[in-house]
Design brief:
By secondary structure, this protein is an alpha+beta fold. The protein has helices at 14-27, 60-74, 108-118; strands at 31-42, 47-55, 87-92, 124-130, 132-139, 146-154. The N and C termini lie far apart (38 Å).
């Protein structure tokens, strides 16, 4: 689940990014999100991304995203102008003919697949605990992007009361 996409970033800016993420992680306790529903970006007519929705019932995810956004903007990074829509990217849809992300040329086979996925758009997939922030580096390749975790920063653990 992407909280903030930075785009091409000079290596000398990484220490500041890590410092910001550590600051945010220290102020955030672990929390749960629910995966529910599916959809396509930008639309079902021109699908490029198949996603599962993320419900933030506690509001902690949105709070964390706002804090990251604010801290990074203060450090000179571009502010995101779009509203944050939490989602988990399940697949990037590519054209079977060219291997590149699909434009408007749906084949019969991919149309059937998309239709079957649309039928499941309201399904619940369970929940997951958010326990850490991970800074990833993405490397575009001809076969799609590869992702390398540069650093993992744990959130504060929620303490459970001791049993009597």
């Amino acid at each position: 689940m992407t909280l903030k996409f930075l785009g091409p970033t000079p290596e000398d800016r990484l220490p500041k990014i890590v410092e910001i993420l550590k600051k945010v992680a220290e102020s955030q306790k672990t929390f749960s999100v629910i995966f529910s529903g599916t959809g396509f970006f930008p639309s079902t007519k021109n699908p490029k991304i198949f996603w599962a929705g993320v419900e933030d019932t506690s509001g902690k995810l949105h709070s964390m995203v706002q804090q990251i956004e604010k801290e990074l903007e203060t450090a000179g990074f571009q502010k995101e102008n779009r509203i944050y829509v939490p989602h988990l990217t399940v697949a990037k849809i590519r054209s079977p003919e060219t291997g590149v992300t699909r434009q408007k040329n749906n084949t019969m086979q991919s149309s059937k697949m998309l239709h079957s996925l649309e039928l499941d758009m309201k399904r619940d997939f369970g929940s997951s605990e958010v326990r850490e922030l991970i800074l990833y580096q993405s490397q575009p390749t001809p076969d799609g992007s590869s992702y390398n975790a540069l650093i993992r920063i744990p959130l504060k653990q929620v303490s459970t009361p001791a049993s009597p």
